[in-house]
Amino acid sequence: MKKESSKANKEEKGKAKKEEKRKISEEDTARSKKSELEECRERIKEVEEYSKRIKATLENLRKEKDEEINVTRNYANQKMIENLIDVLDDMERLMKNFDNKESLEFEALKMTYRKFKSILVSEGLKEIKASGKFDPFDHEAIERVESEKLPDWEIVEVVQPGYKFRSKVIRPAKVKVALHVEKRKESEDIDNKDKNKNPDG
Known about the structure:
Strand content: 15-25%
Structural class: alpha+beta
Number of strands: 6
């Protein structure tokens, strides 16, 4: 009986060891699988980050390219419109000096002028407002005209219209501006005082 009991104990111990080994093996396998899964997740994260960076780079390149194309197109249009402004000036001069303003020819010229100008406007041409106070960014003063009524540097007359292409000035408006009489007198008084102080000057 003792032998059988001892044999049974050995078998039990053997089974227990096998079971323990099996559990350890399963745990190792589970740990190994978990580790592999974590590695896969990390790798997926890296690939996703890399993919996002590539996508952002491509998007930036596309935007830069689009901007370059727009700049090139705008520059080409600007040069063309600058040349066509001269034609617009010629048409305006022709209408101004037309002998018979009641004729069909004059009406046809006016219609052609309006249509031509509207095409240029649709392409981005804007006429510069040339009234009120002189603006050195938009206007070019070619003469100062004495005035008792208008304040100093008020625009008196437009000699040549100015234009912008989109927001860029491509030709400032040439204008005559007021020189208020009081301002002229003040200026002359200052000059006279300077001369009296420095008679040799």
